[in-house]
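Subgroup meeting minutes
Present: P.N., E.W., G.H.
Scribe: E.W.

1. P.N. recapped why we're keeping a running log of single-chain structure predictions: easier to compare across weeks, and new members can see raw inputs and outputs side by side.
2. G.H. added today's entry (339 aa).
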Amino acid sequence: MVKTARKRPRRGTERAGLLERLDHGVVLGDGGYLLELEKRGYVQAGPFTPECVLDHPEAVQELHREFADAGAEFLQALSFYASRDKLATTGHGGDARAINRMAVRLARSAAGADTLVAGNLSLTWVYDPKHATSPERVRKLFDEQLEAQMREGVDFVVAETFSWLGEALLATERIKKVGGVAMVTMSFDRRPLSYDGHTPTECARALHDAGADVIGVNCLRNPFHMLPIAEEMRHAVTGHVACQPTAYRTPADQPDFTATKEFPFETETLLLSRRDMAAYARQARDLGLNVIGSCCGSIPVHVREMARALDKRPADPAWRVDYGKPMSAYEYYGHGKDA
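Output recorded in log:
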């Protein structure tokens, strides 16, 4: 049975919020949800909508708990693609409010006493700058999600995976309208250019000027292809910058993992190692990035090694190892000597 949601502590009483934590150092995010839950058999490949929060709440709660145990300092509600129009593609448009509320409850139920819970907005697939009515339609979709999520109590809101700067600005507008702390991230596929023709620098400045508390980049690209974009954004603004790459290996000429032939049924063959993700975390910290997280393909072991790389989690306790008499490949190859 799924636990009931714990009440959110009043601001300033028990836990520091996101911005207060960022004033004192890097904050580590969680990993990817929808593709991992699809791999576990709880999400339908193709639409990737999150009705599993209603159909399989225990599975969602367990993944939240795994990320928290690995060292994530905030958990994102599984409300990615939970706008009414997107949910309608799988017949769940009428469940939009219930899905958004349950998503927050599940994250809250798995969060530790010091773990923040973030609401989540994402691209709607209905934004079209050529149509004058599109912005208002998107506003209504975001407002419905935010009303449901805020009712359950979130510490801040992540708005993510926007290819259109215009849509990202609408998300920022709606989050700030309800008084939320906004972390808003763009997503770039083949070229580092938004669909409305803006560079990472221009996106960063526009979002920062619109009031986003944290700006950045997420999804589609792995650390190798994303860090240069995040670094450009870091130089563009004085505020906080987030980076949340995928954990999938892709070629330089096709950085977007969703455009590879392996997506979605062979993505496990592209998975980066835990050491790759740990190295990314250290590089991101050294570049001056503030929220260091991960996205699709990132699993709890990745987050755990990122936490260790950022000195947020101790190494495993040592045990007696005799490298002169190896009993496994661990000793034979000298693993652990450089820990």
